[in-house]
Write a structure and sequence with these properties.
Blueprint (H helix, E strand, L loop, with lengths): L5 E5 L2 E5 L1 E4 L11 H6 L5 E4 H6 L3 H7 L2 H5 L5 E4 L2 H10 L4 E3 L4 E4 L6 E4 L1 H11 L3 E3 L11 H33 L18 E6 L5 H14 L3 E4 L12 H10 L5 E4 L5 H10 L3 E4 L1 H6 L3 E5 L17 E5 L19 H5 L2 H9 L3 H22 L2
Parallel strand pairs: 3-13, 4-5, 5-9, 9-10, 10-11, 11-12, 12-13
Antiparallel strand pairs: 1-2, 6-7, 7-8, 14-15
Helix pairs in contact: 6-7, 7-8, 8-9, 13-14
Length: about 375
């Protein structure tokens, strides 16, 4: 593996890259508590700014002292803007609202209330949450969208990114004045001020390299601490779009974070790391744990040191509820050091799943998260 490792200094602690952040959309990584996350080696969590505005509410989180105090997590939090989720809802049914040039107009499915979502509101919410890494509001597209829509997406994404950065600078300047400090230059090296949250831009453009470059060049000119790959990274057959992912990674400055948003399967992460990406998030390890699917390194490996990530078969998975595990006294993996593998057998895990006990979800989630954090460690060895 290529050693594109670095250290990211954030208000709530340092991140060793590459890193995988599990999905904690609504302020919780489902089925596990924060001690589980720490024991698994999780360095940070991804949450969703829009969903948190809906429940428990932006003002509630702010009144408690931010997300870290609200959930009692002393490590970094990355907040996605929520633009993708709003976009998805609107795309499903136009009655939920529309994406305009200056804002997103969204109608709540439950209350029918009209919600105006702007770049400025997005950034203010993330400051109220006390986020360590903030994402700009962007216009996400679908792989099947037309050239016209992708062009519109890039134009709006650039305009919104500029507004997000302006609001971010205003908030940083205001905080500095309140603290009696010199106003920091937020476009300097990302490690210039450990008390400053970072802000990332998102590069859109679909599968069009010209649009991707146009978007990347504009965002780099505005100045961000890192960049995310925007849009679906999969084609209509659910295959990774290697060409456009690699091209877009090459457009991002090598000294800044390259964030492969929403990725993904273990082999996809390995492939994207080789391209230069060093920050990942995905629902796969937690969601699939709740569906009784566990990831594991190939059983032919006798130790962690034997694992060959260049092999197409470096990992596999199995289902907890399969009958063949009824009398299986082995752990999920002989080379895993997670709480589940060190203490419980496959037979017992199957029993818990069959009777529907919630402990099955917890242990499965712990194991899958440790698999992913161990994968991050292996990438740099």
């Amino acid at each position: 593996m290529r050693k594109n490792q670095s250290n990211l200094i954030l208000p709530h602690g340092n991140i060793n890259l590459p890193a995988f952040f599990p999905d904690g959309t609504r302020g919780v990584v489902r089925s596990v508590d924060l001690i589980d996350l720490e024991n698994c080696g999780v360095q940070g969590i991804v949450m969703n700014a829009y969903h948190l505005m809906s429940n428990p509410g932006q003002s509630v989180v702010k009144s408690i002292g931010g997300l870290n105090k609200f959930i009692n997590w002393n490590r970094p939090v990355l907040t996605d803007s929520g633009g993708f989720q709003v976009f998805s809802l609107i795309r499903e049914n136009s009655k939920f609202g529309e994406i305009q040039d200056k804002q997103i107009v969204f109608k709540s499915e439950k209350s029918g209330e009209k919600i105006i979502f702007t770049p400025e509101k997005c950034i203010r919410a993330q400051f109220d949450y006390g986020s360590d890494i903030m994402m700009c509001l962007d216009y996400c597209t679908h792989p099947n969208d037309s050239d016209e829509i992708n062009k519109k997406s890039v134009d709006i994404t650039i305009k919104w990114a500029k507004r997000c950065k302006d609001e971010y600078n205003n908030k940083i300047a205001g905080q500095a004045r309140n603290d009696g400090l010199a106003i920091p230059d937020s476009t300097r090296n990302r490690n210039d001020n450990k008390n400053r949250p970072l802000i990332f831009g998102i590069i859109q453009g679909g599968n069009d390299k010209i649009l991707r470059k146009e978007c990347a060049d504009a965002l780099i000119s505005i100045g961000f601490d890192g960049f995310g790959f925007g849009g679906w990274p999969l084609d209509d057959k659910n295959n990774l779009t290697y060409d456009i992912l690699e091209y877009t990674a090459g457009l991002m400055p090598d000294n800044l974070v390259k964030y492969a948003m929403g990725l993904g399967k273990p082999d996809e992460i390995v492939a994207c790391y080789k391209m230069g990406y060093n920050l990942f998030d995905c629902v796969i390890p937690t969601r699939e744990a709740r569906h009784n699917r566990l990831y594991m390194f190939n059983e032919e490996y006798n130790s962690i040191n034997d694992i060959d990530l260049s092999s197409q078969k470096f990992y596999g998975y199995y289902y907890i509820t399969d009958d063949k595990h009824r009398r299986d006294s082995r752990p999920v993996s002989n080379i895993c050091d997670c709480h589940c593998c060190k203490n419980y057998s496959r037979a017992y895990l199957r029993h818990l799943a069959i009777i529907g006990d919630s402990l099955a979800n917890r242990l499965a989630t712990v194991h899958n998260l440790r698999f992913y954090t161990k994968l991050m460690e292996l990438l740099i060895t």
